[in-house]
Amino acid sequence: MHIDKHQDVIAACRFCFMCRHLDPVGNVTFQESDTPRGRALIIDKIRMANENLKNPDFIATLYRSALSGANRFHCVSHYDEVGLVLAARKDIVEAGLAPEPVKALAEELSQATFTVKGKGKTLYYGNNPKLYAGCKVLSGGDPGKALEVLGFVSESQAVFDRFKKTVVAANCTTLIVAEPSAYDFLKDKLDAIKVEHCSEYLLSAGVKTGPARKAYYLESDFLKNYDRNLTAPRQLLAQCGYKLVPFGTNNEESYSVGEGAVVFDRLNPEVCAKLCQRVCDLADNLKTNLLITPSQYVKTTLSKYNSHIRIVSLEEAVAQRKD
Q1: Mapping DSSP to helix (H, G, I), strand (E, B) and coil, where does residue 247 land?
Q2: Rounded to the nearest 5 degrees, what angle is found at the Cα of 292, between the Cα atoms of 291 and 297?
Q3: 207-322: same fold as 108-202?
Q4: For residue 252, what are the contacts with CB-CB under 8 A and spacing of at least 6?
Q5: Residue 208 CB neighbours (<10 A)
Q6: From the CB of residue 16, how many other CB atoms can be counted at a distance below 10 Å?
């Protein structure tokens, strides 16, 4: 089983309470099973008896994880609890035990296709192509990351192979990626093609500075906790004249409403609504505060559950300074 490769994580996390306060799902369900310790205990039971893999409550709990990297990032020993849950999901899928909603979503994601339009040696993959004059634009669905986090490894590879074929055929030297989940997935996969997060590209390109404006920056779980705490988004926003104010009660917790699980809202809308409500409750004033997020998923999800929230993507925040 894939979980057997994570014996050290099981042994360490199953009796450790140190990071329970950082789990976004545990913070809204108040269930011990929705913490790294709870999930490690469940997986330990599966390790001891394969029959436990069929337990529908265990399966539901493992697919209820938001896969936040905050617990791993701030763990003094950096035990990979995210990797442990992903391994368990692979075992569930390979055993033919994935819940029907998960299988249906995986089938939908498997149909992703990709197209390229425009001219240039730089290719842009995101939702705001107007910011990137002179770049080709790549359109299509998720490049395989969502299938990977659901545990469908071969399906993820098939989608990525189509994505890579499209990118290679575009004859580009640089791929600019906007969505943090896609950036995390692609950054080491395209050999001779340079993969940049959009904030890195825009920062190096230079942007005009507007009047000073206060804003709250919602850290991306991927960019902060998965990808070296990427500093380019904050630097870019500062260059654009935004004065960023800390959000929430501390800078360790994730406020990205399930971004790490990529399709979290599709599978767990009730829990996702609670994650969004927690963010709204922590805001000083929803109608006046400006929130900025690097993730279109976070923007779309927060806006879905509260129409009063003033939230823009990082690229939209930059575009507002360029207009």
Answers
A1: coil
A2: 105
A3: yes
A4: 22, 70, 74
A5: 11
A6: 18
CATH code assigned to 108-202: 3.40.50
Domain boundaries, the chain: 2-94, 108-202, 207-322
In tens digits, what is the pLDDT along the chain, a chain of 323 residues? 999 999 999 999 999 999 999 999 999 999 999 999 999 999 999 999 999 999 999 999 999 999 999 999 999 999 999 999 999 999 999 999 999 999 999 999 999 999 999 999 999 999 999 999 999 999 999 999 999 999 999 999 999 999 999 999 999 999 999 999 999 999 999 988 999 999 999 999 877 777 889 999 999 999 999 998 999 999 999 999 999 998 999 999 999 999 999 999 999 999 999 999 999 999 999 889 999 999 999 999 999 999 999 999 999 999 987 65
Strand order in the sheet with 194-197: 114-117, 136-140, 122-125, 174-177, 194-197
C-alpha–C-alpha distance, residues 250 and 282, integer Å: 11
Closest CA to 24 of 71, 87, 73: 71
How is residue 86 written in tokens? 């992903």
Cα(66)–Cα(14) distance, integer angstroms: 18
- Cα–Cα distance, 316 to 294 (Å, whole number): 9
Q: Which of 97, 106, 107, 125 shows the shortest CA–CA distance to 186?
A: 125
Bridge partners (DSSP) listed for residue 197: 177
Quick one: tokens of 256? 């990205």
Report, at the CATH architecture level, how domain 207-322 is classified.
Answer: 3-Layer(aba) Sandwich (3.40)
- Written as one letter, the residue type at 80 is D
Q: Which amino acid is at 220?
A: S
